[in-house]
Amino acid sequence: MKNGLPFSLSRLELRLLQRLAYNLDETVPLLSIYKFMWLSEENIDLHLLYVYINRVRNKIEDHPRKPRFIISVRGTGYMLRSYSSEKS
């Protein structure tokens, strides 16, 4: 739920959030996210991963261009920041 309203996630959007949540407040490498979402190491298309990151950000962030929860870690991957760590 966001702002008291339910929203839906596709299967791949949910897998993306699951992978980040398994390592809450820790950086998850791009390839690790990709392999978890598509269960494959073949034909890796990181642009497709970026599209899904953007879709999920648009759904969960109040300001997707200034994310508070799905944080880019330059040159490494992404981090799902917990609400409690975001407050501190």
Task: Outline the secondary-structure elements.
Blueprint lengths: L10 H12 L5 E2 H9 L7 H15 L9 E4 L3 E4 L2 H5 L1
Antiparallel strand pairs: 1-3, 2-3
The coarse overall form would be globular
Taking all Cα atoms into account, the compactness measure Rg is: 13 Å
* Termini separation: 23 Å
Low-confidence region ranges: none
* Mean pLDDT metric: 92
Biggest beta-sheet profile: 3 strands, antiparallel
* Widest beta sheet: strand line-up: 1-3-2
Overall description:
- The chain has 88 residues and is mainly α.
- The chain contains four helices and three strands, in the order αβααββα.
- A three-stranded antiparallel sheet has the order 1-3-2.
- Strand 2 and strand 3 form a beta hairpin.
- Helix 1 packs across helix 2 and helix 1 crosses helix 3.
- 12% of the residues are buried.
- The model has no long low-confidence stretch (mean pLDDT 92).
